[in-house]
Task: structure prediction
Amino acid sequence: MKKLAFMFVGFVMLLSGCSTMGTPTYSQNGTITSMRIVETEESVPSLGGAALGGVAGGVLGNQVGKGKGKTAMTVLGAVVGAGVGANVGASNQRVQKADILVQLDDGNVERFMLDPRGLAVGKRVNISKYGEKVNVSPAR
Result:
């Protein structure tokens, strides 16, 4: 039972990066005034690397401690190993991005590099910022 609890805690820690963004720190409407498609390189994490790293980390973590400590180290090793494996196995891929200028309703102009799907010059959008993350969606 306790081993299951440790595994659950590890799973929750792993998923903690998948949480919703919460309340925006900034939100404003505007109009796309300029858009140009550019090719960039993005690092894409490796699922195979994460799986292999998780197994290797779990095996190594299992070598440490006794009883509850051994279980905790196995889970911790698997979680850390998966994270390291995903980054080590990451590859760079060329992707298309839209370099857009948005004339905000307050008169300011902001530039963004975004996925081009659904974007067009003249389209009304809402810009929501969540700390460093930006979400651009159709204005309502």
